[in-house]
Amino acid sequence: MSLKSAAIAWVAVFVLAYVGGMQLRPAATEARVQQKAAGPGYVEALPSFGPENALVYVIEVVDFNCFYCAKRTGFLKRLAVEFDDVRFIEKHLPFLKEPGSENAAIATFAAQRQGKMWRYRDYLFTHQKEKWSDDKFVEYAKALNMDSEQFRKDLHNPTLKRHVRLDKAAAQALSIRATPTLFINGRLVPLTARANEIRRMIQESKNEVRALIAKGKAKTIPEARSMAAAKHHPAGKLFSKYYMDNDVRNLLAEN
């Protein structure tokens, strides 16, 4: 299946969840969940969609209790259909409702272990008004035909909690204080940005990475991509380290 076909299936799941009431059908994208660790310091896979060697990384920082995160998720999926050569990455900054926001993020990683992360995150977004608890998270997992017993165990897996807290620590180190926050190769996307503006930013970012390689300033796409991100974000190379290279070693004390 092509990336574009997979992305279309992902959008179809969102439409069914948002409009059709929770009658979710299997998503082709779930089989594409990456299994390798997100990067140095992480153990779990990176919630992402699109080619790893893409010229452009679109990174969204979310809190599952965030109303505007829920509103924007459908738009980002439509972008994934249009730009199947771009990688879309999800990072977490749980802060709105504690411990509910953190536990919700952990639950998405429990779902990822069963290949249903994207469907589960959408389920959370469409059930924001409910009072979340372990039992409620398991109820959602059952609705998506997961192994509920294993899911409940994973909700308390320290590895999953550590991944979420690493995400949060990285966001705080980069002075990210709100959700949703969207970056395109390190460039902050205004919350009010319209579709055409985001398309323009994506294309400009592609051109920038190509130019860095063509001029000999970078030898590889990852190097050029990180170089561009460091230029555009106030945190410079630190942004590239945490968000482009996903290197969070030593960000949290081992204990």
Question: How is this fold's topology laid out?
Answer:
Elements lengths: L2 H17 L28 E2 L7 E6 L4 H16 L4 E6 L7 H13 L4 H9 L8 H10 L4 H8 L2 H16 L7 E4 L2 E3 L5 H20 L6 H12 L4 H8 L11
Parallel strand pairs: 2-3
Antiparallel strand pairs: 1-3, 2-4, 4-5
Helix pairs in contact: 1-2, 1-4, 3-4, 3-6, 3-7, 5-6, 8-9, 9-10
What does this molecule look like?
This protein has 255 residues and is an alpha+beta fold. It has one domain (3-21, 32-193): 3-Layer(aba) Sandwich (Glutaredoxin). Helices cover 51% and strands 8% of the residues. The protein contains ten helices and five strands, in the order H-E-E-H-E-H-H-H-H-H-E-E-H-H-H. A hairpin with a 2-residue loop joins strand 4 (181-184) and strand 5. Mean pLDDT is 86; it is low at 1-34.
Order of helices and strands: HEEHEHHHHHEEHHH
Distance between the termini: 42 Å
Mean pLDDT equals 86
The CATH architecture is: 3-Layer(aba) Sandwich
Profile the largest sheet: 5 strands, mixed
Q: CATH homologous superfamily - what is it?
A: Glutaredoxin
Unreliable stretches covering 5 or more consecutive residues: 1-34
Strand content: 5-15%
Q: Estimate the helix proportion, in percent.
A: 40-55%
Q: How many domain modules? A: 1
